[in-house]
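job 3f2a | input accepted
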Amino acid sequence: MRGLLPRPSGADPLVSGRSQLLRVGGRSVAWLPPLVLLFLIAVVDWASGSSFRTISWVVLVPSVAAAICGLGGTITAAVLAVVIYVVEDRAWPHQYRTGLPDFILVVLGGALAVLVCAVRLRGERRMLHMQDIVETTRRAVLRPLPPGWGGLDHAAVYLAADSVARVGGDFYDIQPSPLGTRVLLGDVQGKGLGAVAAASALLGTFREAAYHEPLLDTVADRLETRMRRHIRYGAAIGRDEDDRFATAVLLGFPPADPGHVEFINFGHEPALVVTPGGIRALPPGGRLPLGFGDLGGRPPGAVRAPLAPGETLLLVTDGVSEARDTAGRFFPLLDRLTRAVAADPGTAEPGRLVRLVRDGTLHHCRGRLGDDTTIFALRRPRPSGEP
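job 3f2a | predicted structure (387 res):
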């Protein structure tokens, strides 16, 4: 997840939004295109003769600067355009000069370009401010996870379907506790701020319950209760949350049993166990999606499954499982993983596994994600000295 980088004191806040094509060696060369255009217009005007005067075209120079330069550069371009116009026009005999109307055109064109540049810069500053707010919100919902957090090797990629908002309803976290490390990954139904709010509520509850509650079943109950409370609150303030729910996978790594993992599945895609020797899915079964718990009877308890140190758990949201190509075919995740691991057993390492699934998903759908996409891989490291 990309973090917020502090800007150097006094730096132009719009530098980060400018095209890298207008920077050479880290320095802006946005002034170069207007300057070259001004030079070419002056040369053509002088070389074309009295029958085809082009010096009035310098009115284009500040307009180009307004699109790619800062305010100072645009003002400089407008002034230079007027100066070059006056100097070159007066170099011609009186009968060949373009005269006062074109001079007024160049002056007014420069003034309008400066105004347009000021409006553009104001809009870019507002856009960058909104991007900072979005990034801060994203980091609050999906906090950065330090390497080895909770005693697990892990890697994650989050791709928002909305490339502008860059935040959605997918969520994941690792919570260490005295009772063992707990992990949660899920996907809130729907998009927009409602899905983000529900994801944030569930993560907040998970971080507290996973730390304090001794049983994974109790953590699951707390998540179900929180989702229903969130739905009731949304209805109370007039938001239509009646159909809001979340699928999720809740994992527990008991410290006294390093050869097994506990899990509860809330209607989510089963986690895959990826090993150099092959791939298997965790056993099915679990609960209804979060928010639907009152529709069934007594919910089943946590399931215990073998998971040796060094075996990688892969969890994905439906942005991966439902990715389609141009022919409407779903992304063949299991087949792609099987072939990759058979060709190179080192692919089972969490970082490489996440990159493989990310690149495969984006290539399959040609970069057009239909839903938020999260790819999360984690494993208990092997004891030191063990191959």
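job 3f2a | The first strand starts at residue 23 and ends at 24.
job 3f2a | closed
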